[in-house]
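Sequence dictates fold. Next comes a concrete instance:
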Amino acid sequence: MEPRVSSRFEVVDGHTLAGYQDSGSYRGYDGIKAALAMSPDAVTGMVKDATVLGRGGAGFPAGVKWGFCPPGVWPRYIVVNGDESEPGTYKDRVLMERDPHQLIEGCLIAAYAIGAAQVFLYVRGEMPHAQERIAAALNEAYAANLVGRNILGTDFSVDIILTWGAGAYIVGEETALIESLEGNRGMPRLKPPYFPAAKGLYMQPTIVNNVETLSNLPWLFCHGVDEYRSIGTETSPGTRLVALSGHLNSPGVYEIPQGSTTYRELFESEQYGNGIRGGRQLKMFIPGGASAPWFFPEQVDLPLEGRDVGAAGSMLGSGAIVVMDDTTDAVKACLRVVRFFARESCGKCTPCREGTTWEEKILQRILDGHGRPSDLDLLLDVADNISPGPYPVAADPSQGLDAVPFPPRQTTICPLGPSSVAPITSALRRFRSEFEAKITRRNSIAVSTEAFTAPADESVDELVGEAAGAEPLSGTGGRFDV
């Protein structure tokens, strides 16, 4: 398969304007030229016909999303979500570092389609190299009249503003990102009424798109709908980038056909993961970012198709696939993911603020050897208060992944809280014995209440002294566990 959005990854100067126009699978900025020869409605229609799916997590069709802007309401904005913060995800960072002009051209096409005069490109705070590359590319584009006033001699004008955050995971959620752009603390808004397409940035219609989503547009407008849909499946055409990490011989970012490539191909093929390291066996894998419920060896033949993966109880998400071999401690892996979400909770919703912290504390207690037999059910109870179940208590692989509801129900404004539940329910359902093995079950000690019953004429001091020197307690009194 010929690469599309990753065709310049190995080109030394692919991040420059000259490199963008002279390399890759199409000539840079020919896509915006083709779009400007069409009406905005025709551009949106072409994106709909191609079924360009969002690559940020939800997989919602981009053209349909653009159509949600209320007619006659101006100004409108495009916000580019470059705050790639899902653990295990790094495909967008690579796109911004190695092919920033492709992203800029995608921004121009989207802005023309919806009639936006400003685009805000929000990049994660911990990505300074990506910020520098985009800033340099914007300077080149402005100088070449590819961004700014009367682009390419037309009436189309648009400014692209580069900004970046402080590195909070929560601003990956589109309404929290908008809050951050406005100078507020990044916290999600209630939907409804704050659907960004209706009430977004500065309470104006706003389209929030992912970096990879927009990076697909130049190729589409250079090659057409039929070529775009020539690979992939009917419902998931085109390609997508996946970030493979974990216990593989060749982790990295790979461009694959959507909907038809299986996880087994990704893990075992020489052109992708090249097998599990050391010839070990697969134990579990996260199919779509840390917020996705885990999959196990029996799911490796599933294709990376949103409907199939969703029906099996998880999601494609942000394209971050984390592979864990049979040396992995399921309890430690669970804690690592839960700890991340507990630390990144914005604190706005009580179930998330309190619940994720308790999940972390209970898991840490189990790993430290101070776990209680009741902790496993307590974990599921806390999880149920964040993302209502039902969740199975006993590990029974025959229950299948349908035992965990997906998409998850939630008692929070955004999905961060339920994201912490996914690793807990996944690990407990499959590896409950590993949790139980770490719980130290101490013997119960009998306590005689008679030993502490003082005669009426004895003082408290005499009683305490007598108890301190008494023989080991016995009797039929109460019991307690230590």
Remarks:
- The two ends are 62 Å apart (CA to CA).
